[in-house]
Amino acid sequence: MNNITAAITAVHGEVPNKVLSNKDLENMVDTNDEWIISRTGIKERRIVEKGETLSDLGAKVVKEICKKRGISPLEIDMILVGTVTSDHRFPSSSNLICYKSGATNAWGFDVSAACSGFIYTLVTGQQFVESGRYKKVIVIGADIMSSIINYEDRNTCIIFGDGCGGVLLEANDEGNGIIDSVLKADGGGKEFLNQKLGGSAFPITKDNVGHSDMYVYQEGRTVFKFAVTNMAGVAAEIMERNNLTGDDVNWLVPHQANLRIIDATANRMGLTKEKVMINIEKYGNTTSATIPLCLWEWEKKLKKGDNIVLAAFGGGFTWGSVFLKWAY
Length: 328
What we know:
Elements: E1 5-14, E2 19-21, H1 22-26, H2 33-40, E3 44-46, H3 54-69, E4 78-82, H4 93-101, E5 110-111, H5 117-130, E6 137-144, H6 154-157, E7 162-172, E8 177-185, E9 193-194, E10 217-218, H7 220-241, E11 251-254, H8 259-269, H9 280-283, H10 290-298, E12 307-314, E13 318-325
Parallel strand pairs: 4-5, 4-6, 11-12
Antiparallel strand pairs: 1-7, 2-3, 6-7, 8-13, 9-10, 12-13
């Protein structure tokens, strides 16, 4: 009898309609299109309209995933959401998405791991499926980064966009699904990439509203060095653990933070660019949403049994990699 694995059986992504291009940013901060592209690979990003929320995008993802699988939202057992930009401090985005999507028999919670949020949440969902306790678990990575970005800070506003993507996990006995994962964290990275105000350590008060500490702060050079080393390292580690060579890997799905970081990871793995999913030029860094958005865009190119490596690095610091075999 084969071991039960948690396999992705459907995927969907949602991005806002509003486009914020590099040309638009030239009118907002001291930057230019050539500078942004050369350093990040980003040409444009999507931004929510006023009143459009993370839970709205997440509910659409759940409904479309159910439609693809020919099931009712009432059949979903859990919805797990990787995000750092929930609609509210509470209730959780998971709670609201269950309600808005009609998945009212489901329960779940949010996972906070910044740009590694989808990978952390995917491995969490894996445990509930492989235990046999739950049959259908939706894992979402989503962030509305425009809600915590200072559009007067050219170091951060050029990078981030808004988006949401998700997958359905179900049990598999054919040897496909999630095979292995490596997850890591180092809280010492807090000082280099953070949002200082808004938590219990530094609550927002009438005296600090509007302060730059309300928004994302990033020490770009330090974060870049850590990301290049650790994202590439953990991707190489999972290949070594599973005796994989570059020839064995069909696809790398990297977090879309910076094109140079993506290239460094692919090179460390011995992969050609044709095996790397890249859409950073269209969406920028959507934090937890980048990996599921790639899976959604490349879905038609994926074949049953394909060896896929996911890799991410995020604030905190958090980083990790997942090796899975595509199940459909």
